[in-house]
Amino acid sequence: MVKITDVARHAGVSPSTVSYALSGKRPISEETRLRVEASIRELGYRPHAGARALASSRSNVLALVIPLRTGIHVPVVMQFAVSVVTTARRHDHDVLLLTQEEGEEGLRRVADTALVDAMIVMDVQLDDPRLPLLRSLDRPSVMIGFPAEAEGLTCIDLDFKVAGELCVERLAGLGHRVVALVGSPPEVYVRGTAFAQRVVQGFTAAADRNGLSSSVHPCEAAPGAAVAVAEQLLREQPALTGVVVHNEPLLEPLVDAFEQLGLRVPGDLSITAICPDELAESVRVPVTSVALPTAELGSRAVELLMKKLDGEAVPDATLLAPRLTERASTAPRNAP
Predict the structure, then answer these.
(1) Residue 65's Cα: distance from chain center in Å?
(2) Which of 152, 237, 289, 328 gives 273 a disulfide partner, CB atoms 3.0 to 4.6 angstroms apart?
């Protein structure tokens, strides 16, 4: 392993000069700095993480706060986590994953012990109890999600309201007049989870705008629940021909449940969804969907945080425009 003394010997300077070149704590001549940097590159020297942290007064660690509450679809959450970790490593940062439902106490514990330089916060609620603390901390933060009052915060997310609208607009454009939203588990709405509420807002607004008959059905993420909600929908809305799904584990079970009840997809019933592309493509009948850009959201959240750590200005709000991809699950309404 290359040591700082090896770099000093190669560059013809003292070890302390190499240290000053790395930390910037004392001025050195441009010629000396360039010679040290050339030796570092040639020898492949990597400063010890602890030394870097001491030199910069940083831990080089980010916290990713993902409370694993009931109703959360863990595979999708892990896609976010992988993206955050991968991007953080490109910036020479590690990630501390906080999954417990600790609320403000957990955030303050991490901040007060200087374990992390900054935080990315997920599972944002419209009236999120963590907001006052996030606004008061002396460490930068980025929220993946938008609370109802986002002033003084840095937030990024998919525009879920528009995502809900796009799904309905596609069904309306195909002539469907009776539609339903099969949504997240009930507890997600009870908590006031921001993205789920905004999908409902977009779905309802687009249905009203197009004069469609519509209904919203929170649903547990279990195959048995898919059968129950399909039966309920056909019982309560016998003219139903269009469904929007915002509940990833139910996508395939719902297609199966409707077909078991005698409805062909898309011959009798068109289905759209908000979910990752790879999931929509993997269903037996590939589903027309609005993509959930987990990789882009995670990566851009880290980039925003890095800029904040460097003292650069960043936008308060970043909303990613949804895109809808047509697949085999949608077709013109088979009007009588």
Answers:
(1) 12
(2) 289
Q: What is the mean pLDDT of residues 96-123?
A: 80
Mean pLDDT value across the chain: 90
Q: Which residue has the tokens 């699950």?
A: 329
Band of residue 336 on the pLDDT scale cut at 50, 70, 90: low
